[in-house]
Amino acid sequence: MSIPNSDMSQNGNIRHVDALCSVAEIEEIDFSKLLDRPSFLNMERKRSFDERSLSELSVALSPRHSSRNADNSSRFFDHPEYVFSPSRTSFIGTPRSLTGFEPHPMVAEAWETLRRSLVFFRGQPVGTIAATDTSEEKLNYDQVFVRDFVPSGLAFLMNGEPEIVKNFILKTLRLQSWEKKIDRFHLGEGVMPASFKVLHDPVRNSETLIADFGESAIGRVAPVDSGFWWIILLRAYTKSTGDSSLAELPECQKGMRLILSLCLSEGFDTFPTLLCADGCCMIDRRMGVYGYPIEIQALFFMALRCALLLLKQDDEGKEFVERIVKRLHALSYHMRSYFWLDFKQLNDIYRYKTEEYSHTAVNKFNVIPDSLPDWVFDFMPTRGGYFIGNVSPARMDFRWFCLGNCIAILSSLATPEQSMAIMDLIESRWEELAGEMPLKVCYPAIESHQWRIVTGCDPKNTRWSYHNGGSWPVLLWLLTAACIKTGRPQIARRAIELAESRLLKDNWPEYYDGKLGRYVGKQARKFQTWSVAGYLVAKMMLEDPSHLGMIALEEDRQMKPVMKRSNSWTC
């Protein structure tokens, strides 16, 4: 069979399957024949963004070409897996404008701040610290966090500086191999660190790395998301540079397999989603996200798809490919069926019967309709929808979580119709989700008695603060990427303009408080690195949409939506 737009390295060991090559097609590939196929027989490529003219890009991004039709949601994807787009870098290390206009004055300031956050190990840059704020106690803000580095890494890749990303990937990979022990319990071999720190010994004139796998974290929870972000960043590096040699390294291949082994292991689960503890991701404190949080499921889905593109086709790789393919089918079905909420689905849940016992049960999780929160009925527009926060037996968390929904769009966990519905909801509920500083990490805030029960009276997660309905500028890059993928760049422009009115003046806070995000967070660090990097990535993607190829995957055509069309999907 022919494999559209596949890439083979010179030694033929690693395959980059085009996103239009469906999971079903991947199952049919005879890998032994594929490995024998000479690389010069590579397939034709459709024109990427790099091969388009600037005038075409300008037309494509003009407001009048931003259609809400789901059939046009892939307007910017003439090719789903973009080829390397060389960065245009000025002599001061900041990107030149593709349009010829001077960049926003914040851009140069942002690059200076980002570069000040660089961490060096034995003379080589290996990451960026969480914050460069010297006015507060350091705590762990002087460490390099895996999840925090992702927007920094993307910014450097987009600016033609891949070396720091390569160094980061290799150093964290080395840390993965360390023995991980909390009290008398050994963590899984594949666990990636939450963060690491470079210790300088002036007496011995030496440097060492110290990693935190959760043993120092609040609540002592291992970071489930770190491994997923690592795989996603490895794929972004490979896509940006066109260099597959890093991913082909035996160490990287083993690192991926170890991460996947943790996630794909068999147990007592009856669902394809991952069961997690509270505080295992960006929301790293007790916030009621235990169970099957949308953020983890979306990252899991995206990491599986990225791994499918990066794994070698040796004996070990083939085994994992088969397991990944099966899990992707099951996971997409489950998420699109049970996590998706729109007006029609909400009305159906409102009318659910309970205590159903049979294979034909409609209310499969025995959700009690009286448990539906009052706010969701007003929040849900007639046109729009989103993936809810959590689904488990007799429990549905109807809160909106920004990161999970944006990753669902970028990974194509969301169908094109669902992706457009998510963007419709963001537009309809702009005041609630963006307010005066984009974007809400979750909505709405929990308060009063519920806050006491869910957070354990956490003084940092009071209502409309921090993880409890706080506004996080870092989420700009995820929103911008989702906007470009769905053909709605005007939403991203609106969000970026809001951020530009405050971020620099407020010294790049970590988060903002209040229902509208009007106030700098009460415990927010200034000069927060991922607030800076998130802004830069958003600006560069909006200016040159080809960068989106690093972080977005096109829909698998074989993963058909399982839900009936509702009015919210009618565009």
UniProtKB/TrEMBL annotation:
Protein name (database record): Alkaline/neutral invertase
Example GO molecular function: endo-alpha-N-acetylgalactosaminidase activity
SUPFAM superfamilies on file: Six-hairpin glycosidases
BP terms from Gene Ontology: sucrose catabolic process
The entry's keywords: Carbohydrate metabolism, Glycosidase, Hydrolase
UniProt KW Hydrolase keyword: yes
Assigned protein family: Belongs to the glycosyl hydrolase 100 family.
Domain of life: Eukaryota
Function, as annotated: Invertase that cleaves sucrose into glucose and fructose.
Known EC number: 3.2.1.26
Keyword 4Fe-4S on entry: no
Chemical reaction(s) catalysed: Hydrolysis of terminal non-reducing beta-D-fructofuranoside residues in beta-D-fructofuranosides
EC class (word): hydrolase
